[in-house]
Each structure stands twice: as structure tokens, then as C-alpha cells.
Design brief:
Belongs to the ZapA family. Type 1 subfamily. This protein is an alpha+beta fold. Helix content is 54%, strand content 18%. It has a single domain, classed as Cell division protein ZapA protomer, N-terminal domain (Double Stranded RNA Binding Domain).
Length: 90
């Protein structure tokens, strides 16, 4: 079992701290950069986070190889969107 570290990411203008395994840090940083890029490209700033998250989640469900969608991944993405949304409301 890997040790978890605290990683602080900036999504939009909000900093969010999450515990993650060390080997996941780089991927989460890239994911935050992708999310911020998507948000910046959406003109409707009031709904930008929700729309960007939905777009990224939808893209992750589209499999070009014809493989089945991983339900665990879909569930994890939905949880992440929920946590980020809740954090931004606080």
C-alpha cells in the first residue's frame, strides 16, 4: 500500500487539498491543468466548472477501441466532480 501525500491544486480560483498516493501526483496535476484549460475555454463562467467536468467525463466514456466503459472510473469521475463542486460552494 502506498503512502498518501497532501496535494494542493488550484481549480479556477479555488485551492483544493487532496490526499493521494505519491505515484498519482503527476497525473492529478496534469488533470487539474486540463480542467483549468477547459474551464478557460468556456464563455459561460457561471457554469464553466460543471460544463468542463461534464465534457471531460463524457470524453473519458468514449472508447475508440470498442472496450467497455469502466464503471469504477465513471463513478470516480462523478465523485470528483461532486467534491470539486462542493468545495467551490464552501
Amino acid at each position: 500500500m502506498s503512502n498518501k501525500e497532501i496535494l494542493t491544486l488550484k481549480i479556477m480560483t479555488k485551492e483544493i487539498s487532496i490526499a493521494c498516493p505519491e505515484e498519482d501526483k503527476a497525473g492529478l496535476i496534469v488533470a487539474a491543468e486540463i480542467l483549468n484549460s477547459k474551464i478557460a475555454s468556456i464563455p459561460d463562467k457561471a457554469n464553466a466548472l460543471i460544463l468542463a467536468s461534464l465534457d471531460l467525463a463524457f470524453q473519458s466514456t468514449q472508447q475508440t477501441s470498442g472496450e467497455m466503459v469502466n464503471p469504477d472510473l465513471t463513478h470516480e469521475i462523478a465523485n470528483l466532480i461532486s467534491h470539486v463542486d462542493q468545495s467551490l460552494q464552501d
